[in-house]
Write a structure and sequence with these properties.
Layout lengths: L4 H23 L9 H19 L4 H28 L10 H8 L20 H16 L4 H21 L5 H6 L5 H14 L6 H21 L5 H20 L7 H8 L1 H22 L3 H45 L1
Helix pairs in contact: 1-2, 1-10, 1-11, 1-12, 1-13, 2-5, 2-8, 2-10, 3-5, 3-13, 6-8, 8-10, 9-10, 12-13
């Protein structure tokens, strides 16, 4: 699939927003709106999956296998580092249980024995629980005729959200999967369908949508307003629509650094908290000062993610792609 540079840059921006959010938490600053990077990720995820499946049809099993190769190895490794660190006493506030570790590894929402929150061992992995639900439902939809897939998925996710509004759930599973945030995947798919049909907002409208989105995020951040996915979700949708409008009108070109950060966004998201925690502890020991600590935390969190992408994620992806190509050639030869 031809790279959509604007989407790559949004992936980079979303990852960096989360890095800033966690760095601010550790250094006494305020950047809660950075958590909205997750909303942008979810809209992008729906968009990408719909476009990819349209341009490269796959079976449900092939789709799940491809997603697992992309997501699971690096996440399991990062989770293993957390578990090893906890066993070594490096994370004194992390309480481990076999049930919670297994639930974390297999993307099952469960309450953490450390906090009671519905978080996996690697806290930021909570978003992957939503991603995996989306992937499973998406894979199931591939058995349907193409014209039925989007209505079927939209109906299912909407029904789950409505159930969460009219019923009270105590279990971690239903508390997680009835949140309105799952509709961001649907929004991404709807945007993708319009994109594939060449129906994107004109440049003036797209620019206005971007301005409204960025202005909304900035207003929330500057005034420290309360927010949730019902607010940040629509803002993320406007942002993706605006960027795609600029892309369609030839206003977006490849720029090496943002492109690299977009490629590395998953690794940045998974690994940044390790570096931020180290920087925060060292800064406290040497009395570095809050602004410098914030800068170093963001820089180190980003760099560790890029390094993990270069040394772990990308080699694993290449190996998986090589196996998939070899398997396809073997299958054709057998025919």
């Amino acid at each position: 699939m031809k790279t959509i540079h604007g989407i790559q840059y949004l992936r980079a921006a979303a990852a960096l927003a989360v890095v800033f959010f966690h760095a601010a938490e550790k250094t006494g600053h305020h950047f809660t709106i950075g958590a909205a990077g997750v909303d942008v990720f979810f809209v992008i995820s729906g968009f990408i999956m719909w476009v990819i499946s349209d341009r490269r049809p796959v079976t449900p099993l092939e789709f799940i296998r491809d997603r697992a190769r992309r997501i699971v190895p690096v996440y399991w490794l990062a989770t293993a580092v957390m578990v090893a660190g906890a066993l070594a006493g490096l994370f004194p506030n992390l309480v481990l249980s076999l049930e919670h570790v297994l639930a974390s590894l297999f993307f099952v929402p469960a309450r953490s024995p450390s906090s009671g929150e519905v978080w996996p061992v690697l806290v930021q992995g909570w978003t992957l629980n939503f991603e995996m639900l989306f992937y499973l439902v998406f894979a199931g939809s591939l058995v349907l005729p193409r014209n039925w897939r989007l209505p079927a998925m939209s109906g299912l996710f909407l029904a789950l959200v409505i159930a969460g509004r009219v019923a009270t759930f105590d279990g971690a599973l239903m508390l997680t999967y009835t949140r309105p945030i799952i509709l961001e995947f649907v929004a991404g798919m709807i945007i993708a369908e319009f994109w594939l049909k060449g129906r994107v907002p004109p440049l003036a409208v797209g620019s206005a949508l971007m301005a409204c989105s960025l202005g909304g995020f900035a207003l929330i951040g500057l005034l420290a307003l309360p927010f949730d996915e019902l607010i940040t979700g629509p803002l993320a949708v406007l942002l993706v629509l605006g960027v795609l409008s600029l892309e369609a009108n030839g206003c977006v070109r490849r720029v090496p650094l943002p492109a690299l950060l977009g490629d590395a966004s998953y690794s940045i998201y998974l690994w940044h908290t390790f570096a931020i925690s180290v920087v925060a502890k060292v800064a406290l020991e040497i009395d570095l000062g809050a602004p410098a600590t914030m800068f170093m935390a963001v820089l180190s969190g980003t760099l560790i993610g890029v390094a993990a992408y270069m040394m772990l994620e990308r080699p694993l992806m290449r190996r998986g792609n090589a196996r998939r190509v070899a398997g396809g050639l073997a299958g054709r030869a057998a025919e």
